[in-house]
Amino acid sequence: MADFLPSRSSLSGCFPGCMLNSTEAEQQRRSKEIDKCLYREKTYVKRLVKILLLGAGESGKSTFLKQMRIIHGQDWDRSAREEFRATIYSNVIKGVRVLVDAREKLHIPWGNPANQTNGNKMMAFDTRSEVVQGMVQTYTFLQYLPTVRALWTDSGIQHAYDRRREFQLTS
Fold first, then answer.
1. Residues at the annotated binding site?
2. Per-residue confidence at 145, pLDDT binned at 50, 70, 90?
3. pTM (two decimals)
4. From CA 66, how far away is CA 15, in angstroms rounded?
5. Which one of 17, 43, 98, 164 is most buried, by most CB atoms within 10 A?
């Protein structure tokens, strides 16, 4: 290089982007991109709220999170809705079984004595064979739906439900 021209190192100090070869320029561009991503992530994490939900089983921790998701407008995808459907079916079956059992233990008579058969059918529900991965499937629930409806309209079950503070009825 001519003596009157500044050296490459002094030019790169004054003009950092001018004297870079293509590899160095790509590395610098990539570095700036990573810096931007880190800045965005840092901003996101600062706004992120973390909550530790403690509570006994069936106290509503998952329900609270689902409600927060609904309140803040996040929609559910199809598979999540299908999973919730099976959970609801399972909860209905379990709840009716608890009510039938509680009605008996609280010595509450049936409103319609013919519902004794429906009560026996619900208590005979085999959770080991009728439940897949802890959930009641739609076809199984539909088989029990008329029984559930008949029991729910029975005044004995309604009276047991009114006394639900005396036993554990999960929701």
1. 58-63
2. very high
3. 0.59
4. 55
5. 98
